[in-house]
């Protein structure tokens, strides 16, 4: 029998970036908030011996323990879905701070085009630019409406950047801190991109260029360019993450606490409201019911969708009929790129996760798509994240993968290789979706989430186009050999690509085509909010967290309003 | 190739004559210990110290935690040396201690796939779906190493460790091309984890018993754990920095 606990005002399922934002804002407003986090506590003190590539970047110490829970995957409906037995394509977060602990800190705002993609694409290119298999839709909120919330997230995080990108949406304020250092490696890209007529700018970064105190009084350190950033926690408290900002902010109010080792298995619903959640204490196996006035799912894209599915809240999407919205529009990212081999040795092992320069000349609708067979595009960046030797063994295509030649080439190239990558937008397709797996279960007996996903024609075309542009930039940078990325065929869950999963709990203005309204309030349960990149109806050409952060701040405000007035917010 | 072969053989000959031990040495048992370490009688390795800025008299003992006999360990050692051979740049997998690294990893979470989803049912699946074997890595290595020895006997009627480099390469290539029959896992997959584990052992921090004396980092120009690059990241010039182990934070 589950033990029922005392009721709280707000419960968040998961305490990562989004759980932290909701908790801070609601707790500051006087609401009693409890976070239920399946993992353990952690803080900067735990990152003092973190420069260990094998432990953290290869064996994934900070990330989800798949022996407890994973997802299943198939490329299409005729394939048998099988469990993702090891982490690979994306690295799911676990423990306090979630994936935000070991993110890079690229912090973008999606383009104005993204939020009104259907309307703007049809206006310019007509209704048939993409086939009707692509389930394009506007988000129901515009860039301008979100701008104050972007501003708020960036101020909380102290983002370092420069306001020079001509393709970006209008900003009410400059970046809170100046851009990071323009290193010699970055300048190579800047010079080449400029001479090709593009518009390079310093990548907006949550690795801060200088020490900063945010409006909540939290301090963030200055980045030391230590080169162990992506997949690592920051020993300097210089990479903004939830556990050094919003979580302590929430704690300070006295209105917030976190229960660790609490794996939520069900959202409890009665009529048109939810009453709380059921969770398992992963250390004892005991079950608890946590009643709450408001339930907020902040357990990342996968589990936000899964918890709604197992709790039977909303209608599962059916690709045959097109009915149902839950699980619909799963999106990912398309990653064109090119590697360049240079003569001179460069300090590639120095760097920071979000140290880079970017162009948006081929992102969104920055360029005319009349003569190309795809819409949207992607940001193109050269980053200097700090290359490490296990993960980075670059060889030319004609070099064998092992043996004497391999050793020589991979060692020679390590300090003579740069790469440019694009983050291509991902357009929703009717065959790409999430559902519950009928066969496989997690450690608590709950079905695994099933992913049905493949790249589509639009993705392949965009990939090719962007790869060609990127290779041109690499050539202009003076690489003696340029190796463009291979064309994409089927999505493969094995090699790391990005942890930018989107969709499944999409937002919108119509309950027939979305799971939540534009305040991320569930259409079928007014006191249930679902927050994460799962709300994105399509994925844009940037990293997602800046945009989810803005949506989360808007939702936090909506929850405070709801707590006073009740009812639907739209 | 012929050159490599000679080198391989002469190294074995060298070891036979050193008198430190016999048999066990062939597989790289102590070769690792000979590079950058002083080996005293009871096998305790002591850092030579001079090349290390922060020398805090670290002693370490390498030993087998997974393999139960020298023969298997020696096959592993020779195979990884073929994948990452000694050359004029510096030590190969054996000299770096990679066989010990792999052995030790197989005895722990890595070998038992402790943090991976290992519930059935199991199906082969498509390549895009990744690892689907019911075997743990420890089981794969045990079988894979036995298969390598079996192939050597079948093809050349000799132990794997007595083959010349070219013959070893031929067998490893058969694994890579998925031409060797294995149970519960494809030989190609075994090859892939063998290759990957070799690179991990070469380049991981020396606390994991590979990358002896940080020589793999030195070869590659990677300085290991450094606190900060903020004061040099704008330099145009390539920086050669003496590497440091994360263990310098732990003692
Ligand atoms: C290596 C890496 C690099 C990245 N780099 C960038 C970048 O540069 N820029 C960018 O924008 N984004 C980046 N991301 C993505 C970014 O980390 C995520 O977008 C962000 O963390 C999402 O926040 P979230 O709160 O939705 O989820 P998370 O931060 O993942 O938090 C979810 C939390 O919920 C908990 N949880 C899950 N299920 C349950 C359950 N059933 N019960 C209780 N708790 C549960 C988890 O343990 C976790 O703590 C990166 C991700 C990775 C892995
Ligand atoms: S690169 Fe900068 S932000 Fe990243 S972990 Fe190192 S010091 Fe922290």
Report on this model:
The complex is a heterodimer of chains A (570) and B (251). Chain A is an alpha/beta fold and 570 residues long. Chain A has two domains: 365 residues, 3-Layer(bba) Sandwich (FAD/NAD(P)-binding domain), CATH 3.50.50.60; 157 residues. Chain A has eleven helices and 20 strands. In chain A, the strands form four sheets. In chain A, strands 1, 2, 3, 9, 10, 11, 12 and 20 form an eight-stranded mixed sheet that branches. In chain A, strand 11 and strand 12 form a beta hairpin. In chain A, helix 1 runs parallel beside helix 7 and helix 1 runs parallel beside helix 11. With 251 residues, chain B is mainly α. Chain B has one domain. Helices cover 43% and strands 3% of the residues of chain B. Chain B contains ten helices and three strands. A three-stranded antiparallel sheet of chain B has the order 1-2-3. The longest helix of chain B is centred in the middle third of the chain and has 20 residues. The termini of chain B are far apart. The N terminus of chain B is likely disordered. The structure holds flavin-adenine dinucleotide (FAD) and iron/sulfur cluster (SF4). The site of iron/sulfur cluster has 14 residues of chain A, from loops.
Summarize this, please?
Chain A has helices at residues 17-28, 53-58, 112-115, 117-125, 143-157, 184-195, 246-252, 300-310, 404-414, 457-476, 545-565, and strands at 3-4, 8-13, 33-36, 71-74, 82-83, 201-202, 212-213, 219-220, 256-259, 262-270, 273-281, 287-297, 337-341, 356-359, 378-383, 417-424, 433-441, 447-452, 481-484, 528-530. In chain A, a hairpin with a 7-residue loop joins strand 4 and strand 5.
């Amino acid at each position: 029998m589950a033990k029922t606990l005392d009721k709280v005002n707000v419960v968040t399922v998961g305490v990562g970036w989004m759980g932290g934002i909701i908790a801070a804002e609601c707790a500051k407003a006087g609401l009693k908030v409890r976070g239920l986090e399946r993992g353990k506590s952690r803080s900067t003190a735990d990152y003092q011996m973190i420069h260990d590539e094998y432990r953290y970047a290869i064996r994934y110490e900070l990330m989800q323990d798949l022996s407890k829970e994973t997802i299943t995957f198939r490329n299409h409906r005729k394939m048998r879905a099988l469990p993702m037995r090891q982490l690979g394509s994306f690295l799911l977060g676990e423990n306090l701070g979630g994936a935000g602990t070991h993110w890079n800190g690229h912090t973008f705002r999606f383009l104005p085009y993204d939020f009104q993609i259907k309307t703007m694409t049809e206006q310019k290119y007509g209704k048939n630019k993409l086939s009707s298999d692509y389930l394009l839709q506007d988000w129901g909120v515009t860039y301008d409406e979100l701008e104050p919330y972007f501003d708020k997230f960036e101020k909380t995080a102290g983002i370092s950047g420069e306001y020079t990108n001509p393709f970006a949406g209008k900003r009410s304020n400059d970046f809170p801190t100046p851009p990071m250092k323009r290193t010699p490696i970055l300048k190579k890209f800047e010079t080449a991109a400029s001479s090709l007529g593009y518009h390079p700018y310093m990548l907006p970064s949550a690795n801060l260029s200088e020490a900063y105190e945010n409006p909540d009084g939290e301090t963030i350190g200055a980045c030391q360019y230590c080169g162990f950033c992506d997949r690592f926690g920051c020993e300097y408290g210089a990479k903004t993450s939830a556990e050094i900002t919003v979580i302590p902010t929430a704690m300070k109010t006295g209105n917030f606490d976190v229960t660790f080792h609490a794996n939520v298995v069900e959202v409890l619903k009665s009529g048109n409201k939810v009453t709380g959640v059921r969770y398992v204490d992963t250390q004892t196996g005991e079950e608890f019911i946590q009643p709450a006035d408001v339930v907020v799912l902040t357990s990342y894209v996968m589990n936000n969708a899964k918890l709604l599915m197992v709790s039977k809240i909303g209608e599962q999407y059916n690709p045959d009929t097109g009915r149902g919205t839950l699980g619909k529009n799963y999106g990912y990212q398309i990653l064109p790129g090119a590697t360049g081999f240079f003569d001179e040795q460069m300090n590639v092992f120095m760097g920071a996760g979000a140290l880079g320069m970017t162009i948006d000349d081929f992102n969104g609708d920055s360029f005319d798509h009349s003569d190309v067979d795809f819409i949207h595009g992607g940001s193109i960046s050269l980053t200097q994240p700090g290359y490490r030797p296990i993960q980075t063994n670059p060889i030319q295509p004609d070099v064998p993968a092992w043996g004497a030649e391999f050793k020589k080439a991979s060692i020679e190239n390590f300090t003579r290789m740069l790469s440019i990558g694009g983050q291509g937008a991902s357009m929703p397709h009717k065959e790409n979706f999430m559902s519950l797996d009928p066969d496989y279960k997690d450690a608590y007996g709950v079905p695994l989430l099933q992913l049905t996903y493949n790249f589509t024609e639009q993705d392949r075309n965009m990939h090719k186009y962007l790869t060609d542009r990127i290779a041109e930039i690499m050539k202009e940078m003076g690489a003696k050999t340029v190796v463009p990325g291979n064309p994409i065929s089927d999505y493969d869950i094995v090699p790391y690509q990005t942890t930018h999963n989107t969709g499944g709990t999409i937002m919108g203005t119509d309950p027939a085509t979305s799971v939540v309204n534009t305040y991320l309030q569930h259409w079928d349960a007014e006191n249930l909010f679902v927050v994460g990149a799962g709300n994105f109806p399509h994925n844009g050409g940037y990293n997602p967290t800046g945009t989810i952060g803005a949506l989360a701040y808007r939702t936090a405000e909506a929850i405070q309003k709801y707590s006073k007035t009740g009812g639907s917010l739209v | 190739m012929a050159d490599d072969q000679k080198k391989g053989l002469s190294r074995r000959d060298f070891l036979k004559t050193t008198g430190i031990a016999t048999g066990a040495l062939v597989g790289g048992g102590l070769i690792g210990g000979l590079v950058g370490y002083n080996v005293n009688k009871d096998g305790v390795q002591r850092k030579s110290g001079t090349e290390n800025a922060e020398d805090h008299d670290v002693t370490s003992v390498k030993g087998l935690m997974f393999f139960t006999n020298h023969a298997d360990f020696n096959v592993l050692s020779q195979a990884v040396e073929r994948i990452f051979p000694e050359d004029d740049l510096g030590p190969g997998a054996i000299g770096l201690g990679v066989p010990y690294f792999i052995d030790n990893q197989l005895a722990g979470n890595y070998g038992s796939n402790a943090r991976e989803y290992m519930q059935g049912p199991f199906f082969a699946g498509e390549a895009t779906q990744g690892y689907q074997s019911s075997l743990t890595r420890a089981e794969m290595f045990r079988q894979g190493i036995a298969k390598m020895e079996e192939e050597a006997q079948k093809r050349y009627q000799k132990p794997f460790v007595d083959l010349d480099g070219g013959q070893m390469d031929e067998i490893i290539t058969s694994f890579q091309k998925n031409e060797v029959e294995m149970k519960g896992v494809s030989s190609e997959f075994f090859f892939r984890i063998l290759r990957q584990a070799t690179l991990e052992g070469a380049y991981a921090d020396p606390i994991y018993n590979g990358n002896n004396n940080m020589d793999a980092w030195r070869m590659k120009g990677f300085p290991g754990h450094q606190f900060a690059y903020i004061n040099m990241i704008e330099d145009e010039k390539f920086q050669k920095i003496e590497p440091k182990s994360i263990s310098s934070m732990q003692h």
